[in-house]
């Protein structure tokens, strides 16, 4: 993953390097990050092309058929007419709640083309849309509304300042949303409120910072924890991986407890 692929590296803030390699630095791929963000909401900004070739941005809602967004668009809307004339489009999807600095948050852009669902997929596409947008039952079957399946050709994931990467449509289709994402905010809050000593021990034992004197969890995913670590040399960011990727949110408590126990033994 490219953590910084533009800008002036000399202008980036410095941080103390790890004193030894982390035990595991595995983290989600760009495709996995994108699938997780797409699955976490049902609202996006659609960019379509007018007959003159100008970009036209519209707020839309969507469901997911696998990883493919499903749109239900009025034929009378400008973006509906645009899609009917030119299937090329992109979707911008923003993750999570609003921040004081929105550019510090995660988001994705999906680029591709729209198409009518095949006859044997139409019922599944319709169900996917209604599952995400229940109020659509009032209009989904109107003759002046059209179901479109967005075929993803290219993905750009941005995780905040200096964190970004790309993926192909094939990589996106093969990936899956993070199963622990729905439980992550609550688990993160619990770890920081009640287990700060354990987080510091993890940073020392597994994160590469044996000189850590404090640590805060800033992110959780199926592969591990992101920590902000305070050391006498300054503030750093560490990755503490689980021994194996988690398959469900139900494994999160036992996995973090196991990391804490093993960190204590290492200390």
TrEMBL record:
Pfam families: CREG_beta-barrel (PF13883), DUF2470 (PF10615)
Organism: Mycobacterium paraffinicum
Region feature (Disordered): 1-35
Lineage of source species: Bacteria, Bacillati, Actinomycetota, Actinomycetes, Mycobacteriales
Record PANTHER family: CREG1 PROTEIN, OS07G0573800 PROTEIN
Residues covered by the DUF2470 domain: 185-256
UniProt cross-references to InterPro entries, sorted A to Z: CREG_beta-barrel (IPR055343), DUF2470 (IPR019595), Haem_oxidase_HugZ-like_sf (IPR037119), Split_barrel_FMN-bd (IPR012349)
Amino acid composition bias (Low complexity), ranges on this chain: 22-35
Protein name in UniProt: Pyridoxamine 5'-phosphate oxidase
Coiled-coil residue windows: none
Domain CREG-like beta-barrel positions: 29-173
GO CC terms in record: cytoplasm
């Amino acid at each position: 993953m490219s953590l910084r692929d533009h800008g002036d590296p000399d202008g980036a803030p410095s941080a103390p390097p790890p004193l030894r390699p982390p035990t595991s630095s595995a983290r989600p791929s760009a495709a996995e990050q994108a699938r997780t963000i797409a699955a976490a909401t049902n609202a996006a900004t659609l960019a379509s092309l007018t007959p003159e070739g100008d970009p036209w941005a519209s707020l839309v809602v969507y469901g997911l058929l696998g990883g493919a967004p499903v749109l239900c668009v009025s034929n009378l809307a400008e973006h509906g007419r645009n899609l009917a004339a030119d299937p090329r489009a992109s979707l911008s999807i923003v993750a999570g709640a609003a921040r004081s600095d929105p550019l510090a948050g995660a988001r994705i852009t999906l680029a591709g083309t729209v198409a009518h669902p095949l006859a044997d997929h139409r019922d599944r596409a319709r169900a996917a849309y209604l599952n995400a947008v229940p109020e659509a039952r009032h209009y989904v079957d109107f003759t002046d509304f059209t179901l479109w399946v967005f075929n993803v050709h290219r993905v750009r994931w941005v995780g905040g300042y200096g964190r970004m990467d790309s993926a192909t449509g094939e990589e996106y289709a093969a990936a899956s949303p993070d199963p622990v994402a729905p439980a992550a905010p609550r688990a993160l809050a619990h770890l920081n409120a009640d287990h700060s000593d354990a987080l510091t021990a993890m940073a020392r034992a597994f994160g590469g910072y044996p000189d850590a004197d404090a640590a805060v969890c800033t992110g959780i995913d199926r592969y591990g924890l992101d920590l902000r670590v305070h050391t006498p040399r300054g503030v750093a960011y560490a990755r503490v991986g689980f021994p194996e990727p988690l398959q469900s949110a139900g494994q999160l408590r036992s996995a973090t407890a196991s990391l804490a126990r093993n960190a204590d033994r290492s200390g």
